[in-house]
Amino acid sequence: MTLVITTCTNRKRKPVSGALHVSDLPPAEMLDFASEWAGRLSAELTLFPASQIYGGRAFQEATAAAEILHGRLMIVSAGLGLISGEARVPPYSCTVLVDAPDSVGARVSGEFSLPKWWQALSSVSPFQESLEAAAEEHQGLVCAALSGSYVAMIANDLLSLPDDMRARLRIFTRTP
After folding, report:
1. What letter would DSSP give residue 54?
2. Terminal CA-to-CA distance of the chain, rounded, Å?
3. Nearest Cα to 83, choosing from 32, 134, 18?
4. Strand, coil or helix: 170
5. Tens-digit pLDDT profile for residues 126-169
6. What is the three-class DSSP state of 128?
7. What gap in Å lies between CA 50 and CA 74, rounded to an integer?
């Protein structure tokens, strides 16, 4: 079975509660910020299948590809970690885009980098799944449509995959 991985989107199809806007959190060091964010995620009771939260054409194309291939859809989320399209998660507003109102990089005090944010988020998110476990479960291709910033964010996870899993990985990006 094929594993189809895509990115989250800023465009949400469900309303976001006030507590789940990154811009509403006080600035903090990265690990403290990730912990506060994870606490807010855990406290939210309004949940939907992740595949119903994200909008946009690229997301819909990835969803269609997973259906056509009878594969599993997974989403690299700047606010939730790596999640299944079937996972019940809250709508949220968190991005790694630098100039966006809910940019996590603008709220983290001290040193910020995409890989470090991913590591901090992945260690505390109540929704995070392991890329290696997902790739192991699905013995087919791992097709990942990722922007340059998302490739940079999860690069360590991709590089830490065993050789046989990396051999099945196909990354689709417009980044050189």
Report:
1. B
2. 28
3. 134
4. strand
5. 999 999 999 999 889 999 999 999 999 999 999 999 999 999 99
6. coil
7. 9
